[in-house]
Amino acid sequence: MARFLNSNLPDRVKENLGLFWRENRQFVFMLCCIVFFKTAIADLSSISGASMQPTLLDGDKVWVNKLAYDVKIPFTEITLASVSDPERGDIVIIDSAAADKRLVKRIVGIPGDTIYLQDNALVINGQAANYEVVTEETNSMIIIEELLEFSHQAKLSRNSFSRTSRSYGPIEVPSGKYFVLGDNRDNSADSRVYSFIPRAELIGRSSSVVFSLDSDKRYMPRRDRFLAALQ
After folding, report:
1. Does this model's pTM top 0.90?
2. CB-based burial of residue 206 (10 Å sphere; 0-12 exposed, 13-18 middle, 19+ buried)?
């Protein structure tokens, strides 16, 4: 700032800039800290759409831990240090180049896994998932999917038009990449559409909903979802 003020700017301009800096430097510093925190440490991400139902609902705001896997230079995908490896079952926020937008999905396959879907039945490395029906409706059902070290709810459609994406593979997950699915299996554009997700595109991991607004009810808060943990 001092070098800038000592440039060839008119004295009046330099005086005004100096006054602005003296009166607002604490605010500028605080703003820089907030931007750094949001880009490098943690942030909130909005859920739009139905691809992660029943786990996440349209209008949810989820907490994103950006230090869950890697320490990156802010505003880039350049990794400075690795913290931990993504695991099956993690809910991740993805800066997808293939989709040209941010995605929220669940990691199902890690590097080296062989993934196979047969009519929505998931098989990893030759081991089939166990399923339990939780609720049944006219057009869909909610199930619990349990496989290896993770268990979570998923939504399946009864409509015949959605059957084209129910079978996939078998295919092996390459090194440094991940296979992700939406919990709403018949209404999700995920690795079945965009292929494997490079680790560098993983923004972070989410483990809780911070708050939620219901767009079908004039954006009234869903109080039961405030600070709700995710499985």
Report:
1. no
2. buried
